[in-house]
């Protein structure tokens, strides 16, 4: 299973997930949908030991967008974002988040910077949250 498949499947297990569709690299303009935008892998540190074994610490970036109907309460949408961020933290701390590297005990996934990004004149809100996964690969 690819990193993208793992992330999309896992996000849809969030207990408050009610979005009809989760697009990848696209967001349909219909409220009730979400879009996951992969931002690539960032190499943070590369270390080689005396035997030539290489450990690379990476950060995988995603942005999750969510469109909400105009009649929804903004407090409800903000609460959803905060609950998602807390759920991601709890899942990561409990070892229930997806694994991207070679050492699940050293992985960390966090969701941060959740905010209203835009609103239309009809009240439809576009919310965004950044999700990052820090992990190590051994070569």
Explain what the structure shows.
The protein has helices at residues 3-11, 74-93, and strands at residues 21-24, 33-48, 54-68, 108-119, 125-138. The chain is an alpha+beta fold. The protein has a five-stranded mixed sheet with strand order 1-2-3-5-4, covered by helices on one side. It is elongated.
**How does the helix and strand content classify structurally?**
alpha+beta
The fold-level CATH name is STM4215-like
Could you name the ranges where pLDDT drops below 50 across 5 or more consecutive residues?
none
Provide the residue-averaged pLDDT: 92
How many individual β-strands? 5
Helix content: 10-25%
* CATH class bucket: Alpha Beta
**CATH superfamily (homologous) name:** Phage tail protein-like
Give the second-level CATH assignment, the architecture: 2-Layer Sandwich
Strand order of the largest sheet: 1-2-3-5-4
What is the total domain count?
1
Dominant shape:
elongated
Determine the strand fraction and express it as a percent band: 35-45%
Rg calc: 17 Å
Largest sheet entry = 5 strands, mixed
Order of helices and strands: HEEEHEE
Straight-line distance between termini: 20 Å
Count up the helices.
2
